[in-house]
Write a structure and sequence with these properties.
Helices cover about 40% and strands about 10% of the residues. The chain is of the alpha+beta class. The protein has one domain. Strands 1-2 form a two-stranded parallel ribbon.
Length: about 110
Amino acid sequence: MSYDPADSLRRARVPVMALTGDKDVQVDPADVERMGHLVPTPFTGHVVADLTHLLRTDDGPASVRRYKQQMRRPMAPVVGELIIEAARGWIHDRDRDRDRASNGPK
């Protein structure tokens, strides 16, 4: 399967987060940086050590053969932490921008 999200990313109108791991065998982790250059909105990108495409950590070699075993484990805690951190930042920035707009120029 081949999909190039470049056009969709260029049309983004909301903050975008890209999160993968250095053991993702389905999406090149280097794509995270490329995505950041395409998105016209706030962008947060992370490549987490030992994280797979399934957002689970794996200390073994990167392989889809381990997916079934990985799915039996919970998502890596760092994934939730990074999502919460990004969302808090976006909300903070949105609120700051609203405050500035409502206070007008000084």
